Sequence to fold (455 residues):
Amino acid sequence: MRFIDESKLVGVLKKTEGASSKEAEDILGKALLLDGLGLEEAAVLLQMEDMELLEGLFTTAKKIKNEIYGKRLVFFAPLYISNYCSNNCLYCGFRKDNKEIVRRELSIEEIKTETRLILEQGHKRILLLSGEDENNFELIIQAIEAIYSVKDSKGSGIRRVNLEIAPLEKEQFGEINKAKIGTYTVFQETYHRETYRKMHPEGMKADYERRLNTMDMALESGLNDVGIGALFGLYDYKFEVLALLQHAKHLDTAYGIGPHTISVPRVKPANNAFASMNIPKPVSDIDFRKLVAVLRLAVPYTGIILSTREPMELRTELFNLGVSQISAGSKTSPGGYSREEWGQFSLNDTRSTGEVIKDVINRGFVPSFCTGCYRLGRVGKDFMDLAKPGLIKVHCLPNSLTTLQEYLEDYADAETKEKGEELIEKMMRYVPRERKKKTEEYLHKIRNGVRDLYF
Ligand code: SAM
Ligand code: SF4
Fold:
């Protein structure tokens, strides 16, 4: 199944090369209807270089982000369980030819310890990751169970485990489903076949089509929410954005649900990984902002995930432009929350979760630890049906406030607590009328020790 049509993407990029400002402005106007954009429209915006037009794009992205997501930012933390890997991706510190790193596979006890440390930072969502190792599937299943079993000193546990592991076989998806995961994510890394071949010279990952068809198999096997992504810097970013949109469109057409999330990692230096030091097609900060904004316009209801690969100032700008989920306080080595070690790649936002939360609150964003939709079965198509008419506001804003209140009670320092309380009070004005009373009641109960109240 060739749903990534390279010649079509190249053709669209060529055709839109000389697009006029008028065309771009019309597309920005259309994007405000929140119906998304077609390939050619997205390409016209990606071709824009003029700073005035780009400012128009950023303003439009901000409006859309605000209209659909408001000021919420959903938080999560990654948990690496193994850095053993049978692949040799040229950009990654875990590649099998890297003999300098210490290889580790965590025991169940170690996974529980890491989970406890993540919980003590206030997180409620974990993204479980691993190198590609044919023999660690059992460990992944046990790890999910172990993560859910842990309670921290406040009696709180992880409420949603998302997965970012190599493509699985059909029966394995069935098992993963039973283990109760949230979103299953695989990045295609690059959609450009020739570049893909060069970057993935051996191992299971060398098979482009196998990786590309993973999400089809996941959805056919009953998983509800899938995430896609491209590793920006390997090939032309404009091509990758259009390919992500083609992938999203394919899933939507075939299964009635587009991807739940799109991730936008940029290549960062990694130990003994040639392509991370000599990035083939570096993406500048301004192009990175452009591509996030174009994605926000093109697929307005798909979450955009940004990791701690990016520095603080840029992250803040990208929150405004469309990013809806972020990691904080991250470690990218197995056991990294317990001891310092070489991670998979270097990070640029190395602040603690508490520092990030304080900062985003000061900037008027509402940190959210909500897992309500997943736990109430509002997943897959149901989530999209909910998201599309803008009902996100009815559920998500109140849930962000109740989970923030929990955080303030259990994990925040005095200053964050004070600022957070002020923010909650301010944001209560935007809670829809029919939800106001109940939200106030929940907040009151949480202040008095009740936990885990959500809509
Ligand atoms: N090993 C599995 C796989 O490759 O599918 C699971 C995901 S891997 C642990 C997480 C992601 O890290 C990869 O998909 C890749 O996009 C990203 N990554 C690898 N090296 C990187 C680097 N040098 N800079 C930024 N991201 C990198
Ligand atoms: Fe292994 Fe994933 Fe790193 Fe590739 S990106 S070397 S598959 S951990």
Summary: The chain is about 50% helix and 10% strand. Residues 389-447 form one domain.
